[in-house]
């Protein structure tokens, strides 16, 4: 007598369960390559890792439909990969290549592509909340069945932009999902030093919106709560605030030595609450996925990142004239030293 096939959670198929693993593994492999390039001085600007937070970016973005729009932050590379960003594009952007999406301007993942469903981010904390409130208000006014999702860190909840944006979206019943990634630190400030709230989800009541708190290192739980919020927004029921409890195991950026972190804290999270380790255990346990399948996906991720790195390294540097493209509408470019002509 054969044993019954495992029941897959939350309406996901076996292929989708493996996709979730693929995007988490690809995120980590790509960021590990970026660290190597950063140490070789091939990365221009800072490098912001999502080590330990891959599940919240991947699981939440996976809950969106193709026409939905998300606004990532510096630790949401995984969400951009889910929406169609390619590793070679990310590498070119970090390396400021001339064929990057911004032609060597801006830095790291400050890129957007409306066709694929992600908006270029603003660095200032919380500022993407009012932007996405406006975007999703347009969805509602046009009667488009589309949803927006915006990420903020725990520190951003203390900003005026966060307050104004979520309050406006709540009043206008915008189809918006606001995710607070509570990784324990606003740069170097621990959570208890920047808010007296017991939970960031408690803030939802102040705006009259439903809120929930979930385990941000459980990719399936992240998918579940985000899917519920997305479905609610698509029905016309407005904003949902989600707090995902997670932990970043690297500093704010690669230059941050994390001297403010208590001894043993990082090692404890790595040993007991790594999102990839937890998902592998569940996949190979109750969901009966062969470990060899996951190892094949690991190899595929390494191969894809290797090929993307070679391609990005062959990309040319930006041309000086590229600094004018997208700045002047007519003409899109100008002759070299054009400004000297004006003084003659």
Overall description:
There is one protein chain. The chain is of the alpha/beta class. The protein has helices spanning 14-39, 54-61, 77-82, 87-94, 128-141, 160-171, 204-207, 219-234, 265-272, 275-284, 291-314, 338-341; strands spanning 69-71, 148-153, 176-182, 185-186, 189-190, 211-215, 240-245. The protein has a 5-stranded parallel beta sheet with strand order 1-2-3-7-6, with helices on both faces. β2 (148-153), α6 and β3 form a beta-alpha-beta unit. α1 crosses α2 (54-61) and α1 (14-39) runs antiparallel to α10. The protein is globular.
**Rg:** 21 Å
Number of helices: 12
**Order of H and E elements:** HHEHHHEHEEEHEHEHHHH
SS class: alpha/beta
Query: Uncertain runs with pLDDT below 50, 5 residues or more?
Result: none
Q: What is the mean pLDDT?
A: 93
In the sheet with the most strands, the strands line up as 1-2-3-7-6
> What does the largest sheet look like?
5 strands, parallel
Tell the overall outline: globular
Key traits:
single chain, 344 residues, alpha/beta, 5-stranded parallel beta sheet, two-stranded antiparallel sheet, 12 helices, globular
SSE inventory with pairings:
Elements: H1 14-39, H2 54-61, E1 69-71, H3 77-82, H4 87-94, H5 128-141, E2 148-153, H6 160-171, E3 176-182, E4 185-186, E5 189-190, H7 204-207, E6 211-215, H8 219-234, E7 240-245, H9 265-272, H10 275-284, H11 291-314, H12 338-341
Parallel strand pairs: 1-2, 2-3, 3-7, 6-7
Antiparallel strand pairs: 4-5
Helix pairs in contact: 1-2, 1-10, 1-11, 2-8, 4-11, 5-6
């Amino acid at each position: 007598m054969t044993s019954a096939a495992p029941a897959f959670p939350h309406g996901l198929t076996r292929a989708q369960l493996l996709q979730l693993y693929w995007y988490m593994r690809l995120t980590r492999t790509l960021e590990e390559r970026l660290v190597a390039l950063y140490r070789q001085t091939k990365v221009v600007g800072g490098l912001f890792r999502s080590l330990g937070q891959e599940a919240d970016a991947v699981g939440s973005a996976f809950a969106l439909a193709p026409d939905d729009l998300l606004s990532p932050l510096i630790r949401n590379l995984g969400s951009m990969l889910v929406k169609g960003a390619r590793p070679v594009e990310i590498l070119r952007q970090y390396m400021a290549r001339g064929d990057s999406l911004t032609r060597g301007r801006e830095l790291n993942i400050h890129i957007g592509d409306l066709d694929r469903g992600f908006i270029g981010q603003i660095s200032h904390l919380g500022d993407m909340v009012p932007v996405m409130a406006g975007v999703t208000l347009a969805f509602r006014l046009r009667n488009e069945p589309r949803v927006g999702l915006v990420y903020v860190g725990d520190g951003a909840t203390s900003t005026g932009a966060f307050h104004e944006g979520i309050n406006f979206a709540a009043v206008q019943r915008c189809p918006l999902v606001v995710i607070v990634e509570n990784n324990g630190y606003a740069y170097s400030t621990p959570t208890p030093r920047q808010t007296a709230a017991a939970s960031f989800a408690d803030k939802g009541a102040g705006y009259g919106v439903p809120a929930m708190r979930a385990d941000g290192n459980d990719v399936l739980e992240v998918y579940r709560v985000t899917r519920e919020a997305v479905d609610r927004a698509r029905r016309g029921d407005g904003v949902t605030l989600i707090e995902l409890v997670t932990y970043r195991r690297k500093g704010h950026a690669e230059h941050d030595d994390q001297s403010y972190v208590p001894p043993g804290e990082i090692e404890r999270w790595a040993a007991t609450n790594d999102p990839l380790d937890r998902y592998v255990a569940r996949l190979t346990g109750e969901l009966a996925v062969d470990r060899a399948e996951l190892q094949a996906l690991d190899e595929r991720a390494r191969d894809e990142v290797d090929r993307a790195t070679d391609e990005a390294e062959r990309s040319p540097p930006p041309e000086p004239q590229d600094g004018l493209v997208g700045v002047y509408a007519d003409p899109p470019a100008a002759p070299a030293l054009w400004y000297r002509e004006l003084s003659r």
